Amino acid sequence: MGLLEGALKFYIAERRGVPVILTPGIGGMPEIVTPTHPILRVSYLSPESAASEQAISNAKAEVQGRHPLLLMTMPCPDGPPYRSGVIFWRNQTVSINWTDGKHGKAALNAEEYLAAATLHNYSWGSDLVRGARGYFLSGPSDASTLWRIARVEFDVAGRQMFTLSPVRLASGLPDVDFSTIGDDLLRQKLVADWGDVQKCLAGNIPYGLITAAKNVAESLVLVALGKAPGKMTLEQGLTEVGKRLKDKQPLALPLDFLDYHLMSKLRILHGQCHSDRVVISGRLVEPEFALTVAADLVQVLRSAGVAR
Q: Do residue 111 and residue 148 come from a single domain?
């Protein structure tokens, strides 16, 4: 194990305009080290915060801030797509003397980072104690990634060793073409709502994704029934779609019972995200489950003949 991989603290400084990482050497004096695995800027989200677009937006801002949490990644024994690592937090700005391994060098101003140790000192520890596994968010603001805490262990030095599981869709979104939709208003709404689906998926906004996907399904139901916008709710529209399928009556889109049930799931999930339903049920829709609506919607779009 290298000096950095086993470190309880390290320093980040700037030398000749280039960021450098230093850790205390055998003699105690910091020396420059090169990470063997990426060190990622991250922010923590509780399960409740992961359900809030504003909280996710704040977490993205923290990742881009001056002193975010850092995840020193390591090889994961569970293999892909899991990742392991140790969280470090910024403690203070210090002036350090350092060495290149041969000679002492002039002092540098550096940010001191310490490894997260005692679990109850951190918000993720409090969440784990109550049985709620939170998330770490990483990545640039327009392509952020959520990682759920799968496991936390402690190494011999007392550092928290995280195993993280990605919250993501198994595959990308297909090309979609709504040009065959005759109603101009519905076509424009479908294009706008599909754009929201893409943004929510790319930005890891799972609850916004449910709403956007529900809106697409709502317009598809109206197209299938030949109804104008505002004439019926999604529940009413799905009831009519189900009746026509059962009676073998024609629809303007080639939907089947699988599509009917997938869109019904979207409607129900959207209702489960409302505050009153959350209070009644006593639980949130988990982000991983929320993301499944993208695959459901893709299936419906393919049946409707607008996705390739």
A: yes
The model's pLDDT over 27-40, given as tens digits with 9 standing for 90+, comes to 788 998 989 999 99
**Mean per-residue pLDDT, 229-245:** 90
User: What's the pLDDT score for residue 1?
Assistant: 37
Q: How far apart are CA 217 and CA 213, in angstroms?
A: 6
Least Cα distance to 143 among 122, 108, 172 occurs for 172
pLDDT at 123 over 70: yes
- Note down the domain range covering 98: 9-167
Same domain, 17 and 159: yes
Compute CA distances 115 → 44, 91, 157, 233, 304, whole Å.
Answer: 15, 10, 10, 53, 52
Up-side HSE of residue 77: CA atoms within 13 Å toward CB? 5
This prediction's pTM: 0.70
Same domain? For 54 and 200 the reply is no
